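A reminder from the course coordinator: this example appears on the midterm review sheet, so study it carefully.

Given structure:
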């Protein structure tokens, strides 16, 4: 199957004769075997199968296979959240004493993960402006750098990552490029096709699509040659004594990275999604393509309305022809980016933004984004309210920035709601 819409429906679970057409929920912690040796082979990684849901579960794996097919990867796994996915993706190839380079425009939770929490684990991070030249970004790399990280569409600033540029830089330094593709989804962009090595997702967003389940995913392209850089990545290229000396890159080939993340990190950290959550996620994936088309159509309609509104100071939505990221949007997401945009009101005060948002009736104020219901958030008043305007600007977030996520309602109703709220400021 080649069509992205077909993969949304058909990939992953392929029932055999007499099996259920819908993906079953394997709501069991454990799995039975006839002999001790059969189970022992699973613990030695000599045989494929299931023995405990903290590591793997059939429902989870079938959904991971669908996401893998959508991204064009070689192997994939699900995690309990997008944060867990980003942590596992990096920690799988880093250890104390290592260094990573990341775009400074990434989601605040990921920024804190890399800049604060992982620093306590001995992993240092240098944040760079993703718009800088290759030569400038090169200067951030060190001999112990193991990863370059960026978001395909940044949250909340909705900038577009130049994946090809980042891939060139990463590979020049012998490290993989990890791209968080949450906002674009594989429907609108597949970063592996542009040189990315590993993809992460918060499946909580568009993939689930209904604000029903928290989850994450990691997809490995299988393209990065770990053995060619064996000194940099000993976790994949030297024996793992906790599994009888297995060398993952030698034994598992293109599945090495995901096998290690499952057999080591999921074993030890246990950030597995419940089978029920994965089942609900799979229902969302079935309609992902058609939903993204509507999200993009509504997003463009709202962005155009805001662009022409005399009470709006600025709008950032890459699908607009005069947007600073429009050229990158045309290259990487020609069918549309997503339904998320950022804008600011004239006057730029927190008070004006709060009054505007409090006047909305249909559009909700939520600490969420990218689902069926239209919502918005003012970081300066909510997620980043502890920061001064100067601190916000230093983090790349305008103090007047409002993040709006266009849902699946009728665009005319959403515009009418914005119109009546604007009339009150």
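Designed residues:
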């Amino acid at each position: 199957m080649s069509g992205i819409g077909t993969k949304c429906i058909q990939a992953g679970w392929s029932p055999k004769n007499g099996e259920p057409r819908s993906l079953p929920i394997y709501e069991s912690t454990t799995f039975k075997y006839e002999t001790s040796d059969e189970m022992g082979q699973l613990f030695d990684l000599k045989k494929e199968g299931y023995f405990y849901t903290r590591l793997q579960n059939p429902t989870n794996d079938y959904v991971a296979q669908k996401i893998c097919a959508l991204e064009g990867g070689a192997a994939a796994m699900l995690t309990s959240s997008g944060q867990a996915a980003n942590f596992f993706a990096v920690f799988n190839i880093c250890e104390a004493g290592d260094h990573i380079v990341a775009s400074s425009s990434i989601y605040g939770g990921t920024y804190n993960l890399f800049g604060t929490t992982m620093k306590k684990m001995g992993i240092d991070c240098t944040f760079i402006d993703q718009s800088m030249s290759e030569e400038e970004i090169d200067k951030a790399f060190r001999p112990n750098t193991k990863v370059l990280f960026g978001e395909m569409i940044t949250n909340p600033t909705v900038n577009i990552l130049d994946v090809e540029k980042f891939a060139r830089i990463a590979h020049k330094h012998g490290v993989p490029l990890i791209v968080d593709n949450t906002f674009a989804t594989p429907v609108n962009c597949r970063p592996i096709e542009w040189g990315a090595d590993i993809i992460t997702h918060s499946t909580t967003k568009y993939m689930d699509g209904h604000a029903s389940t928290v989850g994450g995913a990691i997809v490995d392209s299988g393209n990065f040659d770990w053995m060619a850089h064996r000194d940099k990545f000993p976790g994949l290229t030297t024996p793992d004594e906790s599994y009888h000396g297995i060398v993952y890159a030698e034994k598992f080939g293109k599945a090495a990275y995901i096998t290690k993340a499952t057999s080591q990190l999921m074993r030890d950290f246990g950030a597995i999604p419940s089978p029920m959550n994965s089942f609900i996620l799979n229902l969302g994936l079935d309609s992902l393509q058609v939903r993204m088309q509507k999200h993009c159509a509504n997003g463009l309609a709202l962005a155009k309305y805001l662009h022409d509104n005399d009470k709006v100071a600025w709008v950032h939505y890459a699908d607009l022809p005069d947007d600073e990221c429009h050229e990158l949007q045309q290259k990487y997401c020609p069918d549309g980016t997503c339904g998320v945009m950022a804008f600011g009101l004239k006057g730029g005060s927190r008070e004006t933004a709060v009054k505007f948002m409090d006047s909305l009736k249909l559009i909700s104020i939520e600490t969420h984004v990218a689902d069926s219901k239209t919502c918005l958030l003012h970081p300066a008043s909510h997620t980043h309210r502890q920061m001064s305007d100067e601190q916000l600007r230093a983090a790349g977030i305008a103090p007047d920035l409002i993040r709006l996520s266009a849902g699946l309602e009728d665009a005319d109703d959403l515009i009418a709601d914005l119109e009546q709220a604007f009339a009150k400021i």
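The chain has 17 helices and twelve strands. The longest helix spans residues 288-307.
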